[in-house]
Design a protein that fits this description.
With 399 residues, the chain is α/β, with parallel strands linked by helices. The chain has two domains: 175 residues, 3-Layer(aba) Sandwich (Rossmann fold); 196 residues, Rossmann fold (3-Layer(aba) Sandwich), CATH 3.40.50. The chain is built from 13 helices and 22 strands. The strands form six sheets. It has an eight-stranded mixed β-sheet with strand order 13-12-9-14-17-18-20-21, sandwiched between helices. It starts with a strand and ends with a helix.
């Protein structure tokens, strides 16, 4: 049975990609109907989308060609999936604040179908606090975001803001409809990944070798399983996982604040980030110059995020990571109990194939009511899938 895709096109040069996306979806046997804003029509003619979709294109809330239905309500009910691509800052702001003054916004506020949003705009617009606040609001509503890519923008800047490629968006839609089971559908999953940086002065900092690969793999797998995934990442060069909301932080304190902010609404929390245990007590505002003799840095403890989450835990299933070099089981079980976690994923980072930057991992899963379960050497993607399956199995068993 054909699935119905309602493509909402808002104003921006990336409209040409929406035409390509329409063609790809039609070729993949989806039914596609297109709504365009007035601004979008300045970039691409409605006739283009009509020819590609073989359906009427909707542009005005007050044009009612079929007297038996109200057009925007009929479209809202017809859709199996609503996709806004490209999504401008203006439309994101409207949807986040419940404003309905055109065909796109009235239809999207009336639909009960999943709403996906693919932003496209100038890099500074995308990073503006107001836009990020609106994105976060929509994410909390359950809308899914297809993160924009990085590259040359029409405005001449190079940075994040390019509409994701039509091939990638089409593949995400295909995955959405082809997955037989989504055990995390409706669940909010909060994951941390990567290292943190603790500044010494404007030039130097303390950090570790974490690449973020394990946490990013977990976020990707959780999204594939239908979860609403928020990934709080320290500095990383990895591409953002598709369908995942990524929040970048630098320091342990910033990660602490973001995790605690999102924690109350989370169903599953996976703390895979390698957060610094110590930071310089005094941060120099100027570069420290070389002097004769040694330099002594006084360090102070950072806040223990997992410990704090264990104290505040209510309905959340709490998972921590333990990267160890010795006495793996002893340290993992101690962490499991001290921090009131439901699960600890431990590994020996000195083992071949299990280090921070490796593409593979060897982990042991520790839980309070189950014997340890050691996974063999696997890719981090496969390890992530096994971990998510174990979490799901245990959540079902406890419910």
């Amino acid at each position: 049975m054909k699935k119905n895709i309602l493509l909402c096109v808002t104003g921006g040069i990336a409209c040409y990609k929406a035409a390509s996306l329409t063609s790809k979806l039609i070729q993949s046997d989806y039914s596609v109907k297109v709504i365009m804003t007035e601004s979008a029509m300045n970039f691409v003619s409605p006739l283009t989308f009509q020819a590609l979709s073989r359906n009427e294109v909707y542009t005005d809330t007050f044009i009612e060609n079929n007297p038996e239905v109200i057009a925007h309500i009929d479209l809202a009910d017809w859709a199996d999936l609503c996709l806004v691509a490209p999504a401008t800052a203006n439309m994101i702001g409207k949807l986040a604040n419940g404003l309905a003054d055109d065909m796109v916004s009235t239809t999207l506020l009336a639909t009960t179908a999943p709403v996906w949003i693919a932003p496209a705009m100038n890099v500074h617009m995308y990073d503006h606090p107001a836009v990020q606040k609106n994105i976060n609001t929509l994410y909390q509503f359950g809308h899914r975001f297809i993160e924009p890519g990085e590259g040359y923008l029409a405005c001449g800047y190079v940075g994040k803001g390019r509409l994701e490629e039509p091939e990638t968006i089409a593949e995400l839609i295909h995955q959405h409809f082809s997955e037989p089971a989504q055990p995390l559908k409706g669940k909010n999953v909060l994951i941390t990944a990567g290292p943190t940086k603790e500044r010494i002065d404007p030039v130097r900092f303390l950090t570790n070798h974490s690449s973020g690969k394990m946490g990013y793999a977990l976020a990707e797998e959780a999204a594939k399983m239908g979860g609403n995934v928020t990934l709080i990442s320290g500095p990383s060069t990895l591409p953002s996982p598709l369908g995942v909301k990524v929040i970048f932080v630098e320091s342990a304190a910033q990660m602490y604040d973001q995790v605690l902010h999102h924690f109350p609404k989370a169903d599953i929390v996976i703390k895979s980030a390698a957060v610094a245990d110590y930071r310089p007590k005094h941060v120099s505002q100027q570069k420290l110059k070389k002097k004769d003799g040694n330099l002594t840095l006084e360090l102070e403890r950072t806040k223990d995020i997992l410990l704090e989450l264990g104290k505040r835990k209510k309905q959340q299933f709490l998972v921590g990571f333990a990267a160890e070099t010795e006495n793996i089981e002893e340290h993992a079980l101690s962490k499991l109990n001290r921090k009131n976690a439901d699960m600890i994923i431990a590994n020996d980072i000195t083992a071949e194939g299990a280090g921070f930057a490796a593409d593979t991992n060897i982990v042991t899963i520790f839980q309070k009511k189950h014997p340890p379960k050691t996974l063999p050497l696997l890719s981090k993607s496969e390890t992530a899938r096994k971990i998510m399956e174990e979490i799901i199995q245990n959540m079902v068993g406890e419910s």
